[in-house]
Amino acid sequence: MTRTFGGIELGGTKTVVVLGQPGAIREREEFPTTTPDETLSRAVKTLLHWREHGLLDAAGIASFGPVRVAPEAADFGTMLDTPKPGWAGAPVLSFVAEALSLPLAIDTDVNAAALAEYGAGAAQGCPVVVYLTIGTGVGGGVLLNGAPLHGMLHPEIGHVRLRRMAGDAFPGICRFHGDCVEGLLSGPALVARFGRHPGEVEAGDRVWDAVAHDLAEVLAMLVLTLSPQRIVVGGGVTNRQPHLLPATRSRLPHILGGYLRDCTHAALERLVVPPALGDDAGPMGSLILAEQALAAKGAN
Amino acid sequence: MTRTFGGIELGGTKTVVVLGQPGAIREREEFPTTTPDETLSRAVKTLLHWREHGLLDAAGIASFGPVRVAPEAADFGTMLDTPKPGWAGAPVLSFVAEALSLPLAIDTDVNAAALAEYGAGAAQGCPVVVYLTIGTGVGGGVLLNGAPLHGMLHPEIGHVRLRRMAGDAFPGICRFHGDCVEGLLSGPALVARFGRHPGEVEAGDRVWDAVAHDLAEVLAMLVLTLSPQRIVVGGGVTNRQPHLLPATRSRLPHILGGYLRDCTHAALERLVVPPALGDDAGPMGSLILAEQALAAKGAN
């Protein structure tokens, strides 16, 4: 018997609610992420509708962070200190759990996207996977033999500090850290850096150099810390600027300094890749979380 | 029946060969690491002696790196591109395997030390562990639910680049990267930075500020990338400068910028700790590798 799953990709800007199986989204609803109450109510209403039609065996939530992902924690499934107004302390998981009586799982949006790319996308067969998204914010998910890395909280790769390019004085825009990865590379950071929309800046313009530099520093840090077989770089910034990943890859051999072998152009094209699932990685990941929640309940 | 294991901790400066069980070193021999042939021959001779006395069920090698740790690789157990003269390409594992016909395992010295601290030291019960050593070189091992992280190669945390302290112009001494972590924080780097031996520089001297800054940047990067429950900081530099870890911890809340909760003094004292096993972590880790090699052979 084929099971059917529901998923919520709770993003900082928009929320996507889906129905289907991992790899096959059958229905989809999208709306802006507003207040926790309004956003989660709307998502729950859609899931309840599907459940009433007998279509829902479990649900998964792929949430922006930081969110508590340790099931043993008292505040499991709760949003932590986020700059997004109104969301700090929002009980994301329990809000959904109280409305639906179904197996339920929650993880970060980037861990979920990594799961989807590992299952059916650009990271198949890779024991160590990083999924980096560069959009309204910057986040990173890490997968080890197919299991999301949680640790004390979960990775917050978007807030690592970088060695800056000589002569680049852009102070960054993160309200917590100024020039952390997110403060330097997110969409709003690029607008602040360029003084205009990135789409208006030509690919050959030298102002992109500092952006490629900073992204290359992030990727080198990830290579040296996690030794991944694959780094999937998704999100609006790199999706809309196809020149950025090649420019970044070409900087890696110099940063890695010959220390790692096999730092050829071909090897770097295998290591650093765009997502195969595009914007569907997050929603598909939420369906994988739902499938895992059902399996964990022993209901398979 | 109690099994007895042999271990080789192959360090950049000295080699330690031990006999015993994980947690109970019964015999120990130490000598300088010279050429691969001379060093490995001497280690093998000691292990053979113990084996002739019926004392050896398996052996483990905890090696400086970079070394190939993937068993499926054609060059499994071979030293890769190391600056240590004569060692690049040295067939560490096969040299020992040809002399001993015993279950054998190899991992990095820092992964082995992490295993030991996880098993019986300062990292017990921690799902995500980082073991950082700051001595002649700088290396980092990562353990996930008790299993060493390998990935494409293995972590090379010592070669990550850092955001530098404003006004600190020390260029670093790494022959590959200049001011990578090892180029800034290793023992030889401190000698170059201070122009004298670190032991001659008083704890209150402001020249330590840049060192604490750089170490805090490494630790913050590790917290944000791996979300570890424990970071064990070993090696001669921090062992001999007990003021350094407290000075480093006190910088972390500012770098993490309030983004992570629970960044209190007490929480940071639990997160960032000295090794409980001191210099025995590496040799004990080599005995754990031996025990795992025997278990993998189904001989338990």
TrEMBL record, chains A, B:
Enzyme class, UniProt record, top EC level: transferase
InterPro entries per the UniProt record, alphabetical: ATPase_NBD (IPR043129), Carb_Metab_Reg_Kinase/Isom (IPR051804), ROK (IPR000600), ROK_cs (IPR049874)
Catalytic activity: D-fructose + ATP = D-fructose 6-phosphate + ADP + H(+)
Record's keyword annotation contains Transferase: no
Pfam families named in the record: ROK
EC number, as in UniProt: 2.7.1.4
Listed cofactors: Mg(2+)
Keyword Zinc tagged: yes
Keywords, alphabetical: Magnesium, Metal-binding, Zinc
PANTHER family cross-referenced by the UniProt entry: FRUCTOKINASE, TRANSCRIPTIONAL REPRESSOR MPRA
Protein name, entry field: fructokinase
